[in-house]
Each structure stands twice: as C-alpha cells, then as structure tokens.
Model the fold of this input.
Amino acid sequence: MSSHDPTVRPEDHSHDTLRRGSYREVLRIGEILRKETIGGLLLVAAALIAIIWANSPLADSYFALRDYEIGYEPWHLRLSLGKWAADGLLAIFFFLVGLELKREFVAGDLREFRKAMVPVAAAVGGVVVPALIYVAFNASDPETAGGWAIPTATDIAFAVAVLAIIGSHLPTALRLFLLTLAVVDDLLAITIIAVFYSEDVSAQPLLLALVPLAVFTFLAQRFPRFFGLHAWAAWVILLPLGLVVWALVHEAGIHATVAGVLLGFAVPVLRSQASGGPAAGHGLAEEFEHRFRPISAGFAVPVFAFFSAGVTVGGWDGLTSALSAPVTLGIVAGLVLGKPIGIVGATWLLTKVTHARLDPSFKWIDLVGVALLAGIGFTVSLLIAELSFTPGSLPGDHAKVAILTASVLAALLATLILRARNRHYRDVEAEESADADHDGIPDVYEEDEGPERVGPVQVDPDHETHGNEHR
Done:
C-alpha cells in the first residue's frame, strides 16, 4: 500500500537514525555537494599530475618548483611554494570549514542534541579507532609514532567526486550524514592540529592576533548595519584584517589554518538563512561562501594537492618497500578499516544505548558504504603528514604513498557497495522527488514537516536581524 494513502496511520520516525532532514537543509547541502564535486575532480586531477611528474624524468623540476621560495623574510613569510599552499591556500579551505561549522551549530543538525549525537559520535569513533590502529603498528618507533593523527581525516571533496564518477544515486539522508560527519571530522582535525602540531608557540604575536580578530568579529557582526551588503566593503575592510590575523597566528607558531577556522566562526549566520536554501535571502556568510568556495574548491585545494601528493616511488622495489613500512600499514589500515569500524561501531552502539533505530529505508551495509567514503582522507591527511614528518624524509614519503593507496582502496570498496545498492537508492530518490500536488516541494517533506515549515523564508530586505536570529 502506498505510503501516501490517507487511511494509513503514519509511523513516528522521530527517533530514526539517518533521517533525510528538512527540505531546506537538503537544498543547502545539495548545493554545497555540487560545488565540492567539481573541486574533488580537480583535486584528483592535480594529484595525478603531481604523482606522474614526480616519477618522470622531469622529477627534479617538480621538486624545484615545490621548494622555490618567495615572500618577505623580515616578517618570516619567505616560504616555499609548497609551504604557501599548505599554510596559506588551505587557510581558505578551513575558513569555509569554520563557516560551515558555524552554520551547523546555529541552524543545522548540530544545534539539536538529538540530531547531533549520531554524526558527532560517528565522527569521534572515526577518529579514535584509526588513531589506535596506527599506534598499534608504530608504537615501538618514536620517529613514526607522531603520525597517529594522519588516518583520522575525511576529505569530503574527494568523496563526493567518487560519487559523481560512479554515478551513485546516494539518498539525501546518507549524503547529509556524510557531510555532517565530515564537518565534525574537520573540527576534530583542526583541534588536533592546534593542540598537537603547534611547536614553540610565541605568546606575543598570538596575543596581538586577538586584536585584529576582535575588530574583524565586531565589524562582521555589524556589517549589515554599517555597510549594507556591498561586496567591495567586505573585501576592502574585512579581508585585510583576516590577512593580519593569519600572519600573526603563523608567526606565533600555530598552524595558520587555525586562523581560517577562527575567522569563519567570527562571521555571523542568520538562523533563517542557514537553513533556508535558495529562497532564504542573502547575508554576509552567504556572501563569503559565494566568493570563497569556488576559490577553495577550484584553486586552493587542488594546488595544495599538487604540491603535497608528489612523491617519488622509486619503481617496483620502492613501492614494495613503502607498502610494507609500518607507517604505510598503519595509515592504510586506519583509513580503510578503522574509519568504517569506528563510524559504524559508534553509530550501532548509540542506537543500542538510546533505543534509536536505523531508518527503515536503509540497511547497515549502506552505512558501511558511506563510512568507507569517509576513509578517503587525502587533503587533511596530507596536511597532517607534512606536520608529522620532516619534508622529504622516508616516513614522510611512506605516509604520502599510504594516503594515496588508502584513498584509492576506500574509494574502490565504497564503489562496490554503493553501486550494488544503486537500484534501491533510485527507488528512494524517486520517492523523495515525487511532487503529486506540483507545488515545487516533494511530498515526503510536506508529510514530515508540514507545508508551513518548508515554504520560502521571508528575509528583511534591509538585512537587519531581529531577536536571536543573528549569531
């Protein structure tokens, strides 16, 4: 019998795990994933070019380019191009991470404890288990034990690129789970980088960084009132302040990507806008995301991947030696086995403790497929590898080989599972897109939320904020 039959009493799915979420959230997440798909494809292409170049007769020119130094020495900003990509360009990526985290905490699933506990628990499990697996392989070697955080990351751009390549019809609920999981994962990663990979921290520049950060925060919060939403004002006034914060944090000895996250947190988000999708209006967070996401996905992350993924394998013997090294085994096992074990295990444990249940549309094998996608660490894993080991060292090269190998393995295994379930996903997709009353809103969302909760959001044309909407 049809689920839309009025004689059927609807079931209460409020305690289901992997629910599809609100229609507004679906629209917003769908737009983000479309942009990240393009960036992911560029990222994969950049990494392939780097690997081929670094193992070609022209390898010396690749490393000469990567190690070429530019910048202003008196400010300690004379860095190699590879370092500029890691410390500078990735700050743009982490700025968007900060924005997305702010959105989730203000208006997304992380605002409600009941909705947040599943992706948060899954992300924590997906960090802890891979780290423990890595340590099990490397505990006896102090030189390599410091790379324990390398297999804890998730690269959402690479993951959605895999989905695009394999043509998976992954349902909304699984896509939402993957992105929310990746957002929490990024928060854990940046915390790990700030706490465990910051050496010789200098207090003076760190304290000085608080001044432009405070001014940036104040102006960002008052931006609509002072400047309206003129793009030139954001670039002319806020961007230089952000660059000063970045430079001072870099000088303090803390990885400069932390500055990106802090600046992202400082940008205000409207609750109505954060959950609203295309009809929700336009605020400062949307302005920055609109401007910076193409730069991040189309340039910053691919360039970082290009400079970081290049490693000389050294032929078959070199590859065999690298694949058998404890660093490689720890990273590959951590990403390919540890991630799905941690994510699925934490989710299963939570369902037992809270008496929640998996949404009837899905099976545990679907969660395994998504968890394998989360095992594609790549971008952030490469960053942590560079922070863990001396550039050009044998453990550092082994780590890069391991990250590339694990990302490919995780992608292939996820492809096998998700492609096998594609027929079922098409059925779910068809149900989620059905619009019998032709009002532009799929029927399942009207049933879940009621028409009054999925309609367009009205935003003050003067961009003023009222009550507790502005955060």
Observations:
- Confidence is low (pLDDT under 50) at residues 1-14, 273-281, 452-469.
- The chain has 20 helices and four strands.
- Residues 23 and 445 are 6 Å apart (CA to CA).
